[in-house]
Amino acid sequence: MSRFDLGRYTPTHAVGDKAAEVGGHRLPPGSVLTSATRVCPHCVAEDLARFENPTKARPWSRLEWLLLPVRVCGRHGAVLVHVEADATLRAGHDFSATLARRVLPVLDRLRAEAEPATGTAFVDWFVARLDGMRNPGNWLDDVPLHAASAFCEGLGTSVLHGPGTHPSDMGMADLARAAEEGYRTAAQGAEAVGSALDGIVGRVRFGKRGSVGHGKVYGRVHAVLRANPKDVAFEKFRHVLREHAFGRLPISPGTAFLGVRLDERRMHTQRSAAFSSSRSDAGLIRLVGPEAVADGRRLWITVEEFGRVVADVEDHLTAKDVAARTGFSAKQVGHLEEAGLLSPLPEADRNAGSKRRFLRPDVDAFMARLFRNAVPVANPAEPRMTIERAAPGLRVGTVEILNLILDERLAWVGRHTTGGRYGDLLIDRDELSTVLQGAGSPDDVTETEAAAMLAGVDPGRLWCPVREGMLEWSPGYRPRDPRSVRALTRASVEAFASEYVTLKEAAAVLGLAPQQAMRRLAEAGIGDAAAYDRVRMKLYRRRDLTACLSAADAA
């Protein structure tokens, strides 16, 4: 080895920098052993047999024995033996003195107990990278060595052990096996890594309730990447794990994973799937099948797969869906259903839905019928207004007005420009009032008509004789319903005219002023037919007036 190579492969670090540089590779703090070493007892035995110097000076140290990621001898395929130094110096420890005290006296036993490794692929690759060799076909070789080796160990640990396993709890053989497993997987590429991560997630048994921590799923590989959030060397591995988590774990939109937030959900839980499809949990299970949650498993289903499951029922709308689509309230949708304007699906056709549902085409057809004759209006003015504004004043229900529109009994129906929701529908309030009141019955007499038939009667006071039983309202008139026309029965008006005479009519018959006529009738002993404070008018019986006139003519 040249002097240049010796300097290049000697671990060094700058003053104040704990990271070491070896062979042009920057390794994180702690990667180079300073108070201990690792040895291969077979290599030590070969050195002893090869040289003729003093015994403790014959074994040579190897660079890879000082590097933390290396735990296997690439030449003999044995797990290295970790040896703590008796005493450490400022620059490290005396390798020869450590071996003379710790290894050489028990070398035969160490060789007999040496544990064979599961492979040397990781060590061979690591040493080759130290020598500057790269393989374009190796997925790891475009990543700095420290990041690639740490990822291999973390991935292997997660694959072989549980999520709570920490390197401090593992021995040299287990760590070597984990690095070997992780390397063999990662060297094949992102697809192989994804398959390994699938196995990790599939092995975790999730309860039906409660949150799921990412570290409890992926274990050590997640811990390695989370511990290096700002190191760009790990970005390739962070991307792979992040995309796998977004695609396989039910992470909610907006949740950050390894520094990046998920924009759109990719995996549904039972709760999110039920919410997105407007179903109860029980209805959702019936839809996807009970086998999806067999043995108490959580329901996890990708958004794409769930989309295919609900494709057959995407036209099935709940009352809330109909309300959002049409502008009606959910309560009004129930009224439309009761009136037969919207028909729900039979329970057998709801496709596992526990709520009543309506077909989207039926809802769209109903809205199209409402707007088929609507005239676009940019700025409607009274009496043209929305149904919600007109209905309270007329004390009429929405369904009744909609039936008038559907039956084309309203001559004018409008819409706000091109709007197509319930709130955009316009009607003429005056026309609606006229249609609701109807043409009336020929046996009814309006208050104006009654005043014309009853000389001297104030139309505004007709309610007083009605209260006294002298007149009768029409059976079609309902005092508390402003839609009904205020009218009197013709029979009661004619009976009133034949029975009673007002002061004004009596004065006209007598040819006197009203005050003079009232004194004349009083002098003749003709009294009021009804108390003034009750009927609010002077009334006399017609027969009494006739008798008075007859007596005056005889005199």
Automatic annotation (TrEMBL):
Domain TniQ per the UniProt entry, residue ranges: 14-80
Q: Which domain of life is it from?
A: Bacteria
Instruction: Please state what the protein is called.
Output: TniQ domain-containing protein
Q: What high-level taxonomic lineage is stated for the organism? A: Bacteria, Pseudomonadati, Pseudomonadota, Alphaproteobacteria, Hyphomicrobiales
